[in-house]
Write a structure and sequence with these properties.
The complex is a heterodimer of chains A (381) and B (139). Chain A has 381 residues and is an alpha/beta fold. Chain A is 35% helix and 19% strand. Chain A has 13 helices and eleven strands. In chain A, strands 3-2-4-7-1-8-11-10-9 form a nine-stranded mixed sheet, with helices on both faces. A two-stranded antiparallel sheet of chain A has the order 5-6. Helix content of chain B is 0%, strand content 50%. In chain B, the strands form two sheets. A five-stranded mixed barrel of chain B has the order 6-7-8-10-9. In chain B, strands 2, 3, 4 and 5 form a four-stranded antiparallel sheet that branches. The chains are: A alpha/beta (381), B mainly beta (139). At the A-B interface, α4, α5 and β5 of A face β4, β6, β7 and β8 of B.
Chain lengths: 381, 139
């Protein structure tokens, strides 16, 4: 297995752009990544594109608009982990020696999707979906249990949203650039109790792209390649094996495998982008990703350890809560953000001297499984 | 008269006049499944027996939903019910306005209308807070 590096990244600004088609959004991100890497479209040997709501062969349409045709292009869907899944497939195509250089694009237009303005339901015919399940309800059930069993308050949970919205103010790519208060978050309208509107990630349009090469080829393009130290993707296990719905078994297992693959531990991580689809999930993921023991997660946010200037900055980009969540683009956008952070190009939201970054996404609701998919990637410079 | 149609076949049935969920148990490893499976998802054995799951369970968690879904207008309640057999199932929760919900609360199955579709009434299982009947009071 060869070492794989990232030589170019790009992203659109995230926000609500119903007038922009998927090829337009995806093309903008792909061009930015090619330019960033100094890579010619004709050099690209393969492409992956993740998208959930757009329809057929979105990747071909996106890459047609940047001059990449007559090559191997694969379209990927894996709910909120779609972008990370596409990135992992690109990693493997280079690591295995099949190709030397390729592009991964994640793109989503939530404002023009069939579920615009609605709570995201499971796939048609899913039993829980028929009975009124949706993504927010699912996490509200976990949050209620977590608050009840572990004695965590809504005020403490809201602090995650305060932090990430503060970070979003510093990120030009962020959908929201507005500071929030704890009171505002708690008193915003209830969506699925105890989750209120401002504890949720918004509906977002946007795209991100990444260029992957073998480490040898990377030297042609850059003196500072970012290396992929670990890539792990897992599907969910049966709920009858999921003992405690206050925490995610999937994320815990996926992170452990990623640390083992990288030969690193949670103590080595300097910067992290994790799946804060809801404020509460960030606290739970601190534990599952090994950043602290159960019961210590609130301290991480209250003592500023996960703030941009803390010891372990989490979601310096603003996270899904503030930067936004174009479902299939988020996993790729996290990689772009970590690359900027590791290169020292993250502007006002730059964390100090980061050498190792971790990206985590999870998602997809399906009856009888904990969740659909989770992915953890570890990058290093 | 309106036709009553289950939202899906084979999930629940009436036994001795009382509604129960239809599950199965693996005779090799003992794992319980709902709904019924062709083979054991735990140990792959084909030796499964149909079982009627208990009518009662405990409320593992719940939420009041404030936005519409395909079939339900807000506000409506849903939750995970932990059955004595050791599995959790997702269900609509009814009766929550009369009896405020709490984690650990005893719940009882009902089968009732979920939604209307054309001329049909679509029915399914729900869970309701289990209220101990007072002596002499018919409920």
């Amino acid at each position: 297995m060869r070492e794989v590096a990232i030589v170019g990244v790009g992203s659109t600004v995230f926000g609500k752009f119903p007038e922009k088609a998927l090829d337009e959004l995806g093309g903008e991100a792909a061009r930015a990544a090619l330019k960033d890497g100094g890579v010619e479209p004709r050099d690209i040997q393969f492409g992956y594109c993740s998208n959930l709501y757009g329809g057929m062969v979105i990747g071909q349409a996106v890459l047609r608009d940047v001059g990449i045709t007559d090559t191997e292009i694969t379209n990927i869907e894996n709910a909120c982990a779609g972008g990370a899944t596409a990135f992992r497939k690109g990693w493997w195509d280079v690591a295995s020696g099949l190709y030397d250089i390729g592009i991964v694009v994640g793109v989503e237009s939530m404002t023009t999707s069939p579920i615009a303005g609605k709570l995201i339901p499971p796939a048609k015919g899913d039993i829980s979906g028929e009975l009124g399940m949706n993504m927010v309800a699912r996490f509200a059930l976990c949050q209620r249990r977590y608050m009840d069993v572990f004695g965590v308050s809504l005020k403490q949970i809201a602090k995650v949203s305060v932090k990430n919205h503060h970070n979003g103010c510093l990120n030009p790519y962020s959908q929201y650039k507005r500071e929030l208060t704890i009171e505002e978050i708690i008193n915003s309208r209830p969506i699925c109790e105890p989750i209120t509107l401002l504890q949720c990630c918004p509906a977002t349009d946007g795209a991100a792209a990444v260029i992957l090469t073998s480490l040898d080829v990377a030297k042609k393009y850059t003196n500072s390649p970012i290396v992929i130290a670990a890539s792990v993707l897992k599907s969910g296990d049966y709920t009858y094996r999921w003992q405690d719905a206050a925490f995610s078994d999937m994320t815990y297992k996926c992170a452990n495998e990623a640390y083992e693959m990288a030969g690193l531990g949670p103590e080595d991580v300097n910067v992290c982008e994790l799946h804060d689809a809801f404020a509460v999930t960030e606290l739970q993921h601190y534990v599952e990703l090994g950043f602290c023991e159960r019961g210590e997660e609130v301290r991480l946010i209250e003592e500023g350890i996960t703030a941009i200037d803390g010891k372990l900055p989490v979601n310096a980009s603003g996270g899904l809560l503030s930067k936004g969540h174009p479902i299939s683009a988020s996993g790729v956008a996290q990689i772009a953000e970590l690359v900027w952070q590791l290169r020292g190009e993250a502007g006002q939201r730059q964390v100090a001297n980061a050498k190792v970054g971790l990206a985590h996404v999870a998602g997809g609701e399906v009856t009888e499984l904990e969740s659909g998919a989770v992915a953890v990637h570890i990058l290093k410079r | 008269m309106t036709t009553r149609v289950p939202f899906r076949e084979g999930l629940f049935e009436k036994v001795s006049g009382q509604w129960t969920l239809v599950g199965c148990r693996c005779k090799q490893c003992g794992q319980i499944f709902f709904p019924v499976r062709e083979w054991c998802l735990n140990c792959s054995s084909g030796d499964l027996e149909r079982v009627n799951l208990g009518r009662n369970g405990k409320l593992y968690s719940f939420t009041i939903v404030h936005m519409p879904s395909e079939h339900f207008e807000p506000p409506y309640a849903v939750g995970w019910i932990e059955l004595a057999e050791g599995i959790r199932i997702f269900s609509q929760i009814r009766g929550w306005q009369e009896h405020p919900l709490g984690i650990g609360m005893d719940m009882e199955i009902a089968v009732e209308k979920l939604w209307d579709e054309d001329e049909k009434e679509i029915i399914g299982y729900t869970f309701r807070p289990y209220v101990v009947k007072q002596r002499g009071v018919k409920q």
